[in-house]
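Re: the request from the purification team.
They wanted to know what the chain is likely to look like in 3D before they choose a buffer screen. I agreed to run a prediction and write the result into the notebook, where they can find it.
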Amino acid sequence: MVRGDRWWRHYGPHIVTNFQPGQVREEQTCPVEAGRVISYGTSSAGYDLRLSDEGMKVFAWGEQEVDPKQFDCKLLLDYKIKKFAGGDYYLMSPHAYALGATLETITIPRDHLGLVVGKSTYARCGLIVNTTPLEPGWTGQLVLELHNATPLPLRVYAREGIAQLLMLPIDMTPEVTYADRNGKYQGQTGITTARV
């Protein structure tokens, strides 16, 4: 069973920083002008997270191999944000694979599992958003794995919706949560690379 909007409005402020009880589709860009944004906030069956504006990292092209047991941070290049009146964005190169972080910090309850999926607006433009399950007790900024599957450059907007967090109750509260065992990604902030 996936948790719906009424559950989110009640428990969401304890799970997501800067919680929005409704779905935000427009933001004030100045005192009198509103602009459309890729939605974020509470939806009917989840919570739409935003992409941070603190930078993204893209894998460099080359002959080196990626080793998750000895990750070399030099394999990642900084993607700088581009300023635009319609919204600040990162321009992902064709077929690029990048890491970004959510603007929000998330805390998964002890009796739930979090799953994150990409938003349809980006999926229809060729962006694949990947994450792993968020275990009971995990907290931190979520690192998003982003792949531009198209042969064209793709704009990915900062501070706007990027993915939806779904919450699923588990049948019994675990004896040991991610927080209890001090998991290696517990409390992460910003872009955190592979750890063993």
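For the purification team: The mean pLDDT is 94.
Please add any questions underneath this entry.
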